[in-house]
Amino acid sequence: MLLSSSIYSHADLKQMQQADAKNLSFYLNQIVLPNQYRYYQNVEELNRVSSWIKGQMQKFGIPCDYQNYQVNQKNYRNVVCELNIGASKTVILGAHYDTHGESDGADDNASGVAGVLEAARIFSAEKGNLNHNIEFVFYTLEEPPFFRTEQMGSAVHAKSVKSYQQQIQGVYILEMIGFFSHKNIQDYPTGLKWFYPSHANFIGAVSNFDSHHLGGAYCAAMKQINRLDCQRLIAPSFVTGVDFSDHLNYWNQGIPAVMITDTAFFRNKNYHTDKDRIDTLNVDKMKDVVDGVVFAVMNLE
């Protein structure tokens, strides 16, 4: 599955709808409220955010439903929205909206949610040029203590799509897409630092071997856009960090998935702390990341 020029060539990129940094800032400030933490013990705030996400998606003309489930006698919900153009194939684009404890969770993962929202706005405007249906999913309970359990929102969703698994071209998970620096602060799992930049001014595309084409399509799109460097990692799950997000649950179901990420704690030391705030994010680079997602998805064959 390669990046095709059948819809847009590099010379025609300016004809596409572009991501808007002001929109991203607006979404971030709606998701992140002072002292209102989106973690599993604060179901009321999780419900506020999921309700707002659903309303925002509906403003884009994209219908949504809640995917409800219960954990420890508490009710949680994913937000599942579908842009159905009547195509035979579907692409899933997702991000988790919960946080780890009492953190603003601006990069982790309000940034990913904002990215999916802005991509949805663009796809809705460009739906006449789409090759695929697009399912947008906003997950709950990605964070501990539910990570790697059946209670993860993405585990619930990944199981629910088994009936039409063969129609799914791939899954793009946006996991922390807002923290960048020109400084040499980038860390890596053991053994990888010799192959990748020491600066922290790139976006990563992380896949397993079965999903390598998705990472390739994304980095090819970023290369054509030519604003922000894209680095690929294709590795099995035993490499530290490779499966540290919702794409894990699609891999477990045999569905190709890629994580688009600023590399999380390998770069952003605000990770899972009260310093993970909106003012640490770079919305201009976030919009480049989103444009890459849009361009990659619109050109998947």
TrEMBL record:
Q: Name one GO biological process term.
A: proteolysis
| Signal peptide start and end residues | none
Q: Give every Peptidase M28 domain span.
A: 78-293
Gene Ontology molecular function terms on file: metalloexopeptidase activity
| InterPro entries hit by this protein | M28_fam, Peptidase_M28
Fetch the Gene3D superfamilies from UniProt: Zn peptidases (3.40.630.10)
What's this protein's name?
Answer: M20/M25/M40 family metallo-hydrolase
